[in-house]
Every structure is written in C-alpha cells, then in structure tokens.
Amino acid sequence: MTDLDSERTRNLETVRKFFDLMHRKDIEAWGDLWAEDGRILVFYPPAGFGNSIDGKAAILAAFRILRFAADSHLSGSGFGRDRR
After folding, report:
1. Are 39 and 52 in contact (CB under 8 A)?
2. How far from the centroid of its chain's Cα atoms is residue 13's Cα?
3. What are residue 52's DSSP bridge partners?
4. Which residues pair with 39 in a beta bridge?
5. Which residues is 53 bridged to in the sheet?
C-alpha cells in the first residue's frame, strides 16, 4: 500500500465516521473530528444569519442547538412513531 492509498483510506474512514456520528446525533464525538479553526459555509442563510460558522466551538454550539430544536420538534410531531 502506498502513502497515497493509506491517506485515502484514512480520509474515507474519517468521512464515514463523520456521517455515522451525525446520524447517531453524537455531537460531542462528532466535534472531535473538527479542527479548532474549522469553518462551515452557509449557502443561502436566512435573514440575520451569517454566511459561515467559524471555529470548532461555534460549530458545536450551533449543532447542539439544531439537535435540540430537531429533537423538540420531532418529539411532538409523531414523526417516526409506529401508527398501527
């Protein structure tokens, strides 16, 4: 295996872990994947919202809020409940 193959394998494992942790809503473990100076670009932000989220701390804070909002909204909506 070449260095390039090793790097590609490592990168693919990181991407898979990124999406798995997001799917499981494990924001703290997901946050460990971010660099301190990470940045998320927000295309078409709503009024009053910036076009980026800058820094690991800000990214984690934003996703904690999003997770809470999504959990609160979905828990009262019946979404995902067995309707038999």
Report:
1. yes
2. 16
3. 41
4. 54
5. 40
Please choose, from the candidates 39, 38, 22, the residue with its C-alpha nearest in 3D space to the C-alpha of residue 30.
22
Q: What is the pLDDT of residues 29-53, one digit of tens each?
A: 999 999 999 999 999 988 988 999 9
User: Quick check: 6 and 14 in contact, CB under 8 A?
Assistant: no
> What pLDDT does 66 receive?
80
- What pLDDT shows up at residue 1? 76
Average pLDDT rounded to a whole number, residues 68-75:
62
Q: What is the DSSP letter of 45?
A: P
Query: What's the per-residue H, E or C state across the chain?
Result: CCHHHHHHHHHHHHHHHHHHHHHCCCHHHHHCCCCCCCEEECCCCCCCCCCEEECHHHHHHHHHHHHHHHHHHHHCCCCCCCCC
